[in-house]
């Protein structure tokens, strides 16, 4: 059973409509066909119990929402894998390329409470370019660290440093990071070279030159300098250059020791004395004018007076000096 009608009670009826009723097996539907000028019929619209279709395509509505695949969109999980949401934690297996924040030209980008690539161009002593790492629990530079670079076009094109901020966000300065171009750095001193150290204990990675043995398998580079596995004992010693054919200190070999000594020499001195005598007026005598000369005699010595000419007396002969602890790099 099917019926169709139109409800309209008059011109003032605000609820006029066409109705279509069915009461059969439920497969009835409303269909709008269009016949072209060539006599062909095309379905323009159909209304079934499940949905409305226009030219064969279902109409989307609140009860029938399109899927991401149908409209060519990403699903939520696909979006999370492809994009980093703002103000949210995210992990990605892809890469992100971005420009450095231009701190020099854009004051709004000067936010040291965020990590990133910066172009300070020398402001605030942060270098020309920088990688800044902010502490996640702060909104400012407190506890932050960073590495700053010179421009690749500068004279010191490979120069780089590390900088730090304290717990109050106060800049603590920069420390230069050494590269292979820093030939004068301590790390480039050949292993085995004795180094004067201004403290009584060696720094980490160094041994005292105290005549002790070392593990040659543990320190193979040091073993090349000292094949015996024994360091020279430089405690209280002066280092002297090897003669090497100059004939000033001939006969010496590397690492041989030498006792102290005083060069052969002589001290010249003179002794002068005066005395008086008298000739008796009475009796037989002979007064022979002249003088007295003594070419010999006995001498005696007394205790050494160290105050003569302010001479410093000690148990050794030495020049003026300053004491350092001699160490070698253990490698």
Automatic annotation (TrEMBL):
Bias-annotated ranges (Polar residues): 295-312
Residue ranges of the region described as Disordered: 290-312
Domain Phage tail collar positions: 192-239
Signal peptide: none
InterPro entries listed in its UniProt record: Phage_tail_collar_dom, Phage_tail_collar_dom_sf, Phage_Tail_Fiber_Structural
UniProt cross-references to SUPFAM superfamilies, sorted A to Z: Receptor-binding domain of short tail fibre protein gp12
Protein name: E14 prophage putative tail fiber protein (Modular protein)
Organism of provenance: Xenorhabdus nematophila (strain ATCC 19061 / DSM 3370 / CCUG 14189 / LMG 1036 / NCIMB 9965 / AN6)
């Amino acid at each position: 059973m099917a019926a169709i009608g139109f409800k309209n009670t008059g011109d003032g009826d605000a609820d006029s409509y066409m109705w279509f009723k069915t009461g059969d097996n439920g497969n009835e539907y409303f269909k709008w066909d269009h016949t072209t000028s060539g006599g062909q019929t095309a379905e323009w619209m159909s209304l079934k119990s499940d949905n409305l279709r226009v030219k064969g395509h279902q109409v989307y509505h609140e009860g029938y929402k399109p899927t991401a695949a149908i409209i060519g969109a990403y699903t939520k999980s696909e979006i999370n894998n492809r994009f980093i949401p703002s103000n949210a934690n995210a992990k990605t297996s892809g890469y992100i390329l971005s420009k450095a924040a231009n701190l020099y030209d854009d004051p709004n980008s000067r936010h040291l409470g965020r990590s990133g690539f910066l172009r300070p161009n020398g402001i605030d002593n942060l270098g020309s370019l920088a990688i800044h790492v902010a502490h996640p629990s702060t909104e400012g530079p407190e506890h932050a660290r960073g590495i700053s670079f010179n421009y690749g076009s500068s004279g010191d094109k490979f120069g780089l440093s590390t900088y730090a901020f304290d717990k109050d966000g106060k800049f603590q300065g920069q420390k230069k990071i050494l590269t292979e171009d820093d030939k004068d750095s301590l790390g480039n001193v050949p292993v085995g070279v004795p180094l004067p150290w201004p403290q009584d204990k060696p720094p980490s990675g160094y041994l005292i030159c105290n005549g002790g043995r070392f593990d040659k398998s543990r320190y193979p580079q040091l073993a090349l300098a000292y094949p015996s596995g024994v360091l020279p004992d430089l405690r209280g010693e002066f280092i002297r250059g090897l003669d090497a054919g100059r004939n000033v200190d001939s006969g010496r070999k590397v690492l041989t020791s030498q006792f102290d000594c005083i060069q052969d020499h002589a001290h010249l001195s003179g002794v002068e004395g005066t005395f008086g005598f008298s000739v008796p007026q009475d009796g037989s005598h002979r007064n022979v004018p002249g003088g007295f000369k003594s070419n010999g005699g006995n001498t005696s010595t007394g205790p050494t007076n160290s105050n003569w000419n302010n001479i410093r007396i000690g148990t050794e002969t030495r020049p003026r000096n300053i004491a350092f602890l001699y160490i070698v790099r253990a490698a």
